[in-house]
Design the sequence.
């Protein structure tokens, strides 16, 4: 899972930039609206909404932004968003999986195609890439100020029902079966752990090194996809170098 971890670290640095924050909040607002529309605005009775609210809090999204999204859902807004998934390949056959929420499938399909093909990638048919990934629950616990070593954390994680723990100097990364997501989250929170990331994600079964001469182009592809307002998540099977290629 090292490739996924490395990409998440890159995402974390990118998302910290002020220029990204507004777009991130906009995308989370759309997810909040959709979840509340489908299951109601009470997170205690709507697991999907609670998941998105956890994501909003992890992103330090202002409470006013969250409230506006929920009020919009309760206020009878009739906007209809469709969940769509696009699949493609980057350099060296790297899998690219794109999840979107859109009110115009034709527009989003065209935009995603342009972002991928303009940067040397190719589109793929349904199922051609998604089989390379597994849906997982994913949590990150910052180690700064945390008086817990790896063995203690592993014991806590396994006791909570999670599947795997990855450890670095800065953080603990926890993976679980998606059906156990809520149980693991609640169990770890009861033990006093706080998450900087708490989400369902897609983890590649295997990773592919990004060719050195394609690093910048491939990063530009990911940036173009993430900059699209309709795109919620971009997953890849890329194995990045130790250093952020954008640095």
Sequence:
């Amino acid at each position: 899972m090292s490739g996924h971890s490395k990409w998440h670290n890159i995402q974390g640095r990118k998302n910290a930039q002020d220029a990204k924050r507004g777009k991130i909040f906009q995308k989370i607002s759309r997810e909040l609206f959709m979840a509340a529309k489908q299951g109601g605005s009470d997170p205690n009775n709507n697991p999907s909404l609670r998941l998105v609210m956890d994501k909003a809090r992890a992103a330090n999204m202002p409470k006013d932004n969250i409230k506006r999204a929920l009020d919009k859902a309760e206020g009878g807004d009739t906007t209809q968003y469709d969940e769509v998934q696009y699949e493609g390949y980057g350099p060296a056959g790297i899998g690219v999986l794109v999840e979107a929420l859109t009110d115009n499938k034709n527009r989003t399909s065209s935009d995603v195609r342009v972002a991928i093909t303009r940067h040397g990638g190719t589109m793929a048919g349904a199922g051609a890439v998604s089989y390379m990934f597994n849906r997982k629950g994913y949590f990150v616990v910052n180690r700064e100020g945390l008086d817990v070593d790896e063995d203690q954390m592993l014991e806590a994680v396994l006791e909570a029902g999670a599947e795997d723990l990855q450890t670095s100097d800065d953080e603990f990364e926890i993976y679980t079966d998606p059906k156990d997501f809520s149980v693991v989250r609640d169990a770890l929170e009861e033990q006093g752990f706080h998450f900087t990331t708490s989400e369902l994600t897609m983890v590649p079964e295997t990773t592919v090194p990004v060719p050195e001469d394609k690093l910048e182009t491939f990063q530009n592809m990911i940036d173009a996809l993430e900059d699209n307002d309709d795109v919620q998540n971009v997953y890849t099977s890329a194995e990045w170098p130790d250093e952020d290629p954008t640095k």
